[in-house]
Known about the structure:
This protein is an alpha+beta fold. α7 (594-609) packs across α8 (625-636).
Amino acid sequence: MKRIAIAVISILSLNTINAQNEEFATSKKGSSKEKAPISAQIDLQENAPLKKMIDLKDIWKDYTFSSETVRGVRSMNDGKNYTVLERGKPGVDLVQYNYKTGKKVATLINAKDLVFEGKSLGMQTYQFSADESKVLIGTEVEAIYRRSSKAFYYVYDLKSKKIEQLASEGKQMYADFSPSGNKVAYVYNNNLFFKDFTNNSVSQITVDGEYNKIINGASDWVYEEELELSKAFQWSVDGQHLAFFRFNEEAVKQWNMKMYDGLYPTDYKFKYPKAGEENAKVQIKIFDLTSKKIVDVDLRTPYEYIPSIEWTKDANTLAVISSNRHQNEVKINLVNATDGKSKTVHVEKSDTYIEMPFEVHFTKDQKHFIILSEKSGYRHLYLHSIDGKLKNQITKGDWPVTAYYGINEKKGVIYYQSAETSAMDRNVYSINLNGSGKKRLTNKDGTNSADFSTSFDYFINYHTSANTPNYVSLHNSTGGLIRVLKDNQKLNQTLAQYEIGEKTFFSFKTSENVELNAWMIKPPNFSETKKYPVFLTIYGGPGSQTVTNSWGGSNYFWHQMLAQKGYIVISVDNRGTGARGVEFKKVTYKQLGKYETQDQIEAAKYFASLPYVDPTRIGVQGWSYGGYMSSLCLLKGADYFKAAIAVAPVTNWRFYDSIYTERYMQTPQENEDGYDDNSPINHVEKLKGKYLLVHGMADDNVHLQNTSEMISALVEADKQFDLFVYPNKNHGIYGGNTRYHLYTKMTNFLLENL
Length: 754
């Protein structure tokens, strides 16, 4: 679905805290009864380093290493100017800048003018009307799940400076201007509404919305998490129709979380379809603003899932992308908005699975669409005519397209990001629609991403590498540098005061002759004549990567701190991870965890063979899928890992959600062995090393059930372990002092057991 960018407090030159929810791992080999050597730490003391050592307070209390960036850039219609939110006095201003000169053009909204009925409004999100005469402002934004939120919305007229409230009865969700700018659609209490500001009237489109039963215009939990769908409605290009999702959750089983926020705990209940269980019934409906009638979309042979919808540039044609439950077949249907009838114009099939959401982009000329497909073995761009016929493959090669930025239709040029130079790097490119004239637009090795102007005359490039923080620069459409926006010199000066080790990349081959990419950070004053423990940070999930030439944020500094304490810190991308093609990624199909764990155990064996590694002190740590992996490594690789930390791990794939799990595993009813053979809960009897299990008790994603059942299995097997849970904390385990506490806990565990 085409998403309207809504900037969540986007402050130019904002010092941002890179508090990522990433999942990483520490691993060790050998008997848990052995006393860990301290030679590495003694060596550091003897050498009395002049530079500062990193402390957890630097990372999670003082945010010493926070970096500057440019966030929330919104290109204006002319393609020559952009807007950002800037911290001012007394609050946040909406400011316009010129791309070419970098000069401030105007303050479009001054915080002091954002007063409604005597109350100052704190602008957190904003969206322009199509003609840029009005701004839809979101304030008091309240997060719900990963992508969903609700807020109070107001419309601000830039000329008159008049403010109008969207609705007063409660917070709304996903407020969105109509193309004319005189209407705003929104979701409230699971129903879809729109307000007409020409006569200040509110129209309720649906009436059957009810919590945990029917949702109109917003998504259910699993669609939001796994299909990246939250706002589930769209205006047609002429504003005469609203297409929206209707979710019927009544048959979906309910998950219950305890919230400990008062004298008595409260229940938080929501619908969560686990693998093999009933999903919500999803329909697409179209509301006609003229006739006030709702038309049901007929997909002829409907599939289980509808990952996205998108209005084509034809005001009467809606594209609906649907998928079967196995997610190995995708259809694109074009729907007549008047009668809801459809025709299939494209079918995509795979022997394994198709990555979701499936990207489709329609051109303004109403004659073509562009898809991203892995059918060649790597993800590439394909051009189709509107009737579905393939015109040509735009990009080709043994490398994937990793992001699609858009098309300059006047020039017939597409802009995209790819891993062409290396699986670990990302660069920005342009290419003609016919596949000719490919040009690399970024010239720095590392990770580059782009934010293009509406005219595609300019783009802001965000560059990082493994050892350099964010570098933000403005370029013209051919890649020429116009100016540097943020170079993080202040952070670089700070880093120069600390003992920072270089993150180096390498590869090695397993006993199965599989080449794996990895990175390493060595302790200060490293000597090949000494023996060091190894800390293996791990994630390993389908299509993911930890081994990238990019800045690692807060975890990077934790790893540096551990290196300073005498650990060699390493990360390895196992089979199943991304940027190396379908064959490498999809070998894990129907047996998640098997090959991934084999590769990480092979990594431990390889590191143990190195002359400077203590083979009895290899540990592993990860979060989420990484916690699942660290648990499996400690259990299946008990002879090679001494300790493991698992944060918010999946311990049994039967406990996880339908869309994600079945994409890679099919259902438990179809693939019983695949589910059971590599679930940590079924291998607890193999435990030898030290095990720390951590979970947020309000984790709506990977439920506490995973840890609870793991506890029971470990107890039944008479295995000792360490446990820590965080009340009222979700999958990210953050807020207040939480991150500092968690990383203190994990650090102390490593120092004591590895």
